[in-house]
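Appendix C: a fully annotated inverse folding record. The material below is reproduced so that readers can follow the format used throughout the book. The structure is listed first as tokens, followed by the designed sequence.
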């Protein structure tokens, strides 16, 4: 029987364990010393809420699925009908293949072919490596088409501290800019974090 997230690729190093999935090429689980780092999902579940998913060739949302690149207007399929957006790119539900695997690492690969709304071609590779420093993830995208193409990437890890809610937790990140969004989740601007809480 095939799992909802496809093949399950497990890598390990010391007391660290990671499961990467065929469907979307993302992280399903990551644990250290038996403690979950990600709020993942079961092998028999369809990935809920974008947990661990890879967001390529655009993270976030395209308003009304439309964008302009190199003087041409493109219309991507609407996959968030409630907000009328194209959300989180084109590879979240695509089949990825194992390009290289070792006990402590795996490289997932996907060829994104041209399609209506994104008439470009990208060779994608995501390498997951466990070491003494923890988990590192390296994403590489190569334009294998004849023309320049728009590209952005992101990932959707849902971190957990083993608590039901994280509302009281303070996260410190070395960011210099904050991106604001509207009620649809669409970017509206950016501002410096200088002088803010």
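Designed amino acids, in order:
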């Amino acid at each position: 029987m095939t799992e909802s997230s496809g093949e399950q690729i497990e890598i390990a190093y010391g007391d660290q364990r990671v499961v990467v999935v065929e469907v979307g090429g993302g992280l399903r689980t990551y644990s250290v010393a038996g403690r979950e780092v990600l709020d993942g999902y079961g092998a028999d579940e369809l990935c809920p809420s974008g947990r661990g998913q890879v967001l390529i060739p655009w993270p976030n949302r395209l308003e009304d699925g439309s964008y302009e690149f190199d003087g041409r207007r493109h219309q991507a399929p609407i996959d968030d009908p409630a907000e009328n957006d194209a959300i989180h790119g084109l590879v979240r539900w695509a089949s990825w293949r194992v390009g290289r695997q070792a006990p402590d690492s795996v490289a997932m690969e996907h060829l994104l072919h041209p399609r209506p709304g994104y008439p470009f071609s990208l060779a994608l590779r995501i390498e997951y490596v466990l070491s003494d420093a923890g988990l590192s993830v390296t994403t590489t995208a190569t334009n294998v088409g004849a023309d320049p193409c728009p590209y952005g990437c992101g990932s959707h890890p849902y971190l957990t501290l083993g608590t039901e809610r994280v509302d009281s937790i303070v996260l410190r990140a070395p960011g210099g800019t904050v991106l604001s969004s509207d009620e649809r989740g669409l970017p509206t601007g950016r501002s410096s974090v200088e002088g803010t809480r």
